[in-house]
């Protein structure tokens, strides 16, 4: 209800010029001071196509144009359907007892910590943290987090279908690691609500283990890219390519080399 749900406004900790903002495309960001903030999607892509992550890294750090656009005619339609589904689930979550906070995209991680002192439900939460294993700066997000009777938060995600669940669960694992790193009490695992509006519980133990492995591999990749003249050519790069139709970097290279 309007009385229960509020959007953070007054007293927000606005980002400094060197603080990351929410990146709707899910990719890495280079801050004005030159440092990088990686997204959970970047780490996920290390599992599927390390070469595309290396290409994105070199593109972002050199100031050139990001990944070539990929023709996805159904993307807009799917985005609208997901938005409608997300609104339905948000209405259900907002009907639960307690204070509900709708977290704005330009709020800071410090704002999220403050919100957890009063809110039972936080929709659209996002955070930035230093990964404890790789020491990389990571931006992660979830669709909602809901506190239970124990005082700990349960991570919620909203999806239309089960495609790419390995990558989706990896993103939720990143958010869980972020909450743990920031000292925000959270339950292990996550609740995912698909298009049938039935919440389902997912264990994140294996996803957290995979996250630890992939962030370590990403840190090693960055060391190689910054310390050596590593070729990123299609035929002589040391990093594996996936060749998937959904990979913009691979499709662009295939069109130019095959």
**Mean residue pLDDT:** 85
Strand content: 15-25%
Give a quick account of the main beta sheet: strands, pairing sense, barrel closure: 7 strands, mixed
Helical segment count = 7
Molecular structure report:
This protein has 258 residues and is an alpha/beta fold. Helix content is 39%, strand content 18%. The protein has 7 helices and 11 strands. It has a 7-stranded mixed β-sheet. A 4-stranded mixed β-sheet has the order 2-3-7-6. The model is unreliable at 5-25 (pLDDT under 50).
Characteristics of this structure?
single chain, 258 residues, alpha/beta, 7-stranded mixed sheet, 4-stranded mixed sheet
Secondary structure elements and pairings:
Elements: E1 5-7, E2 29-30, E3 36-39, H1 40-48, H2 50-62, H3 75-94, E4 100-102, H4 109-115, E5 121-123, E6 126-130, E7 137-141, E8 144-147, E9 153-158, H5 165-182, E10 186-193, E11 199-202, H6 205-227, H7 248-257
Parallel strand pairs: 1-4, 3-7, 4-5, 9-10
Antiparallel strand pairs: 2-3, 5-8, 6-7, 8-9, 10-11
């Amino acid at each position: 209800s309007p009385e229960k749900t509020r959007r953070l406004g007054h007293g927000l900790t606005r980002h400094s010029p060197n603080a990351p903002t929410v990146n709707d495309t899910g990719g890495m960001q280079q801050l004005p001071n030159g440092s990088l903030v990686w997204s959970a999607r970047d780490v996920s892509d290390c599992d599927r196509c390390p070469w595309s992550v290396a290409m994105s890294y070199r593109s972002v750090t050199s100031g050139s144009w990001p990944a070539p656009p990929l023709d996805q005619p159904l993307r807009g339609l799917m985005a609208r359907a997901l938005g409608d589904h997300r609104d339905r689930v948000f209405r259900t979550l907002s009907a639960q007892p307690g204070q509900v906070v709708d977290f704005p995209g330009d709020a800071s991680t410090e704002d999220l910590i403050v919100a957890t002192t009063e809110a039972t439900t936080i929709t659209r939460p996002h955070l930035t943290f230093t990964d404890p294993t790789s020491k990389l700066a990571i931006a992660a997000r979830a669709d909602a987090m809901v506190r239970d009777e124990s005082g700990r938060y349960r991570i919620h995600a909203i999806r239309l279908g089960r495609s790419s669940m390995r990558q989706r669960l990896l993103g939720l694992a990143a958010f869980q690691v972020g909450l743990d790193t920031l000292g925000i009490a959270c339950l292990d695992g996550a609740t995912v609500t698909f298009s049938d509006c039935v919440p389902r519980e997912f264990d994140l133990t294996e996803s957290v283990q995979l996250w630890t492995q992939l962030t370590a591999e990403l840190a090693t990749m960055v060391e190689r890219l910054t310390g050596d003249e590593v070729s990123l050519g299609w035929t002589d790069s040391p990093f594996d390519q996936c060749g998937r139709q959904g990979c913009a970097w691979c499709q662009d290279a295939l069109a130019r080399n095959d």
